[in-house]
Each structure stands twice: as C-alpha cells, then as structure tokens.
Amino acid sequence: MIQNSAFGETIIELNEIDSTNNYAMRLINEGMAEHGLVIKADFQTHGKGQHGNVWIAEESKNLLCSVILDTRALEIEEQFLLNCLTCVSITEILMQQYNIPNVSIKWPNDIYAGKNKIAGILIENNIRGSIWTNAVIGIGLNVNQSTFSYLNNATSMKNELQKEVKIIQVLKQLLKKMSFNINTFNREPEYFLVLYNNYLLQVGRQIQFMRKYELKAGLLKGVNKNGAIEIEEKQKVRNYQHKEIELLIQ
Ligand code: BTN
Fold this sequence. Notes:
Blueprint: E1 11-17, H1 20-29, E2 38-44, E3 63-70, H2 79-97, E4 103-106, E5 110-113, E6 116-128, E7 131-141, H3 157-161, H4 167-187, H5 191-198, E8 206-211, E9 214-223, E10 229-233, E11 236-240, E12 246-248
Parallel strand pairs: 1-2
Antiparallel strand pairs: 2-3, 3-7, 4-5, 5-6, 6-7, 8-9, 8-12, 9-10, 10-11
Helix pairs in contact: 2-4, 2-5
This protein binds biotin.
The site of biotin (BTN) has 20 residues, from helix 1, strand 3, strand 6 and strand 7.
C-alpha cells in the first residue's frame, strides 16, 4: 500500500535546475527525500525525456515537476500500473478541470490533445536488491508555451484553450487528483489499467506502426498490465514492448 498522505504538502520550487528528476534522485540518495515531496522548476538545463532524449521547454511557460514516492510496499511488477495511474491522473485533470477536448493517452506514456502531444512522463525508479524503494514521477506538461519550433506535433493547454493558464494551479489540481487516485490504487491497482485502456489513443481501431523499418497494420486491442501493447494482425494477437515498435498517428 502506498502511503496516502496528500502529495505536495511540501513543494520545492526552483528557478533553474539540471532536471527535477535528477534533483529528486539526489535527495533520495542523500536520504533527504520524503514520500509525497514535489520538486518544481521554471527551467531545466538538462531536462530528460524518454529513451535518453532531451526535454526542451521554454522558461516559466510549462509545468516541469517530479513527485517522489515511497514504493517499498509495491511489487516491482506494478511499475506499469503506476505509469497508468500517472497517465490517467493527467488525462482526467485536462478533461475534467480544464475541459480540453480529445485528450487521450498514447501508449506507453504520452498524453495527447487531438493528434498532438501535450504532456510526457518519465518515471525513474530506485531499486535496492529486489526492493523497489522509490519512484520519481517526472511530468512535463505544456501549459503556456505556444510555439514548438523543434517539434511538429506538440501542443499546450494555452493552444487548446486559447487562453493562459496558471501553472501552479495546474500542479495543485494534478497533485489533488493523484492523491485521490492513490487511495483507489491501494485498493484496486488494476482499475488504472482499465481506465488507461479507456483513454487509450486509437484503441479498437485499425492502426499503422513501424517495426524494424517495416510498415505494419493491425487492430489495436489494448495494453496489458506489463505495459505491452496488443495488436491483432491477420487474426493473430501479438504483444509488443515499447521499444519494439513505433505507432503512427493517423
Ligand atoms: C517524454 O519523453 O515524453 C518524457 C518527458 C518528461 C519530462 C519531465 S519535465 C520534469 C521531469 N524532469 C525531467 O528531466 N524530465 C521530466
């Protein structure tokens, strides 16, 4: 069971840092981190994305934060379910609190508004021996940035809503939602897999994807609790891990 104290009772707000995830990991390694601690920065000099990519975000325009969790009571196999909880929490605040249309989860951990990415998640884990001790949930949510010259499929809350949004309020809403969802997660972690699949982009549709430079097609059936995507190709369901294929958004 994850402690259900509210997240963000303490928020460390930084003007500039290499990466909020790195800062959080340093606190953990120094024994200075506590469950629920949140680190927020206006700017990251070495923001990290998935697959070793950089995460570039204009200064003071976006939500860049990391949430520290004590995960000792969880099984290592539950890592993907924690990703589901995070994706679902972001999706729900964008839909329910901000009325952003067409919000969905793009497997495995991107949040989309329509056909454009609005948020990314990088969860880094601290594992000692066989014990999963901590997770650092890094969230990059595009809030008031309106142009993304280096990317061609990015959007922000401002672009979707045609108005500026207060970043700290988005963070507070998100932490409230995550704290609430953690209680449900403690009782029924797989419920977040169900919600994840409900919000999954292109689920139940014919999709195209790249596998080893080959363009393939199939029916997107859903994602399983290990985080593998299930695609029906020629009447046979195949599972793929996220490094094996790249989904093409139509
Ligand atoms: C992705 O590639 O989609 C994941 C992006 C995650 C970016 C966030 S910004 C706050 C936190 N600190 C980092 O260095 N990365 C994550």
